[in-house]
Amino acid sequence: MMHLILLGPPGSGKGTQSGQLSERLGVPKIATGDMLRAALRDGTELGRRAKQYMEAGELVPDDVILGLVGEALAAAHAGAILDGFPRNVPQAESLEEILQGNGQSVDAVIVLKVPDDVIVERMSGRRTDPETGEVYHLKFNPPPAPIAPRLIQRPDDREETVRHRLSVYADQTEPLIRYYEENGVPIHWVDGTQPIERVRSEILTRLGR
Ligand code: AMP
To answer: Residue 11's CB: how many other CB atoms inside 10 A?
Structure first.
């Protein structure tokens, strides 16, 4: 049983790492951003409520998020890798209550460290092929010339929005590091600019796996 939180700015690799860790550790991944994007695609009421916030790079209201994760957490008997949740102190307090109700707690927090300029470069160059869903990067993983014209940019990946998301991270999410420190939860800092496999193996080593 393990409840692991991945913290780090947008574009620090939480999604990539949480997927791989989930497979490796055999515990489900709960990623609120993915769940919100699915709700948006499906055109649900929840998706409609979340849309404007996501496109502006703001946090979606806590009650929407708690409605979304509550069920998933209750079902995660083997523990969970939490990616993108909690995003602020009130969400962390709600998580604490839910876990306590089941006699559980947060076991560890991983913080992926990536400097702002690297994030902006990573995200402002990210492009998606609407026909295949394939993700490219104009500089690091350039698309084949014939499909280049049809690629689109995720609305919240525009440079101004990314900069805003970084400030939301600094103001609302980063204080969670202090919160968990004060609650005696082990915090593991990992350099997120390293290659994907290296980040993964460092996380596993820190977890003693
Ligand atoms: P992500 O894919 O985790 O970067 O999330 C994309 C967007 O979804 C964020 O910029 C927020 O608008 C919204 N979002 C995801 N998770 C949360 C959360 N726990 N609380 C509030 N908003 C969230």
So the answer is: 23
pLDDT digits (tens, 9 = 90+) for 149-161: 999 998 888 899 9
Q: Which residues have any ligand 1 atom within 6 Å of their CB?
A: 10, 32-33, 36, 53-54, 57-60, 65, 84-85, 87, 91, 156, 165
Among residues 29, 122, 127, 165, the one annotated as catalytic is 165
**pTM of this prediction?**
0.90
End-to-end CA separation in angstroms for the chain: 13
Best residue among 63, 73, 87, 163 to mutate for probing ligand 1's pocket (most ligand atoms within 8 Å of CB) is 87
CA distance 60 to 66: 10
Sequential DSSP letters for 101-166? HTT----EEEEEE--HHHHHHHHHTEEE-TTT--EEETTTBPPPGGGGGG-B--GGGSHHHHHHHH
The CATH code of the domain at 2-206 is: 3.40.50.300
Q: What is the dihedral of CA 29, 32, 34, 36, to 10 degrees?
A: 150
Whether the per-residue pLDDT at 174 is higher than 90: the answer is yes
Confidence of residue 45 (pLDDT cuts 50, 70, 90): very high
Active-site residue, 165 included: yes
CA of 146 to the centre of ligand 1 (A): 33
The average confidence (pLDDT) of the chain is 94
Looking at the predicted structure, is the pLDDT value of residue 170 above 90?
yes
